[in-house]
């Protein structure tokens, strides 16, 4: 007679402990899931911002290349102007002989420099636009990870509840068998 109430009391304590364990397991799954979602969403936001910055930097690179090309054109025009002035001061025509060759060479080099400056700016812009695309891909992956974290959390909570209910049911059956 004395053993039956004791076993029933132990069974109730075990059931309560099982319920507490289940609650802690569920809480742990929820906290972990919320943390994973929050981290993934933050990483997506950072990647989105980096994509925008890369696009802005690409635009700035093209603008800077244009300014550098204009500066090169002005410098070349100044050099060619000095060459023409020197030819005129010497009494020779700038369109004759070695002066004409030097002028055409200077004009050709100036055009080549301009093309190289523009091509360099375009290459830099292209790299930055690729970087932007990579950031956008990373942001999409992070948003996907956040969604998967929600699914994983739901499954973890469900697993904890089923497992806890199973433990409580087993303990209840054992306490009933012990009481009988």
Task: Explain what you see.
With 180 residues, the chain is mainly α. Helices cover 95% and strands 0% of the residues. The chain is built from 2 helices and no strands. It has helices at residues 3-90, 97-179. Helix 1 (3-90) packs antiparallel against helix 2 (97-179). The radius of gyration is 39 Å and the shape is rod-shaped.
Please summarize what this structure is.
With 180 residues, the chain is mainly α. The chain is 95% helix and 0% strand.
List keywords for this structure.
180 residues; mainly alpha; 2 helices; 95% helix; 0% strand
Task: Give the topology.
Elements lengths: L2 H88 L6 H83 L1
Low-confidence stretches: 1-15
* Average residue pLDDT: 84
Total beta strands:
0
Structural class: mainly alpha
Written as H for each helix and E for each strand, in order along the chain, the element string is HH
Largest sheet: none
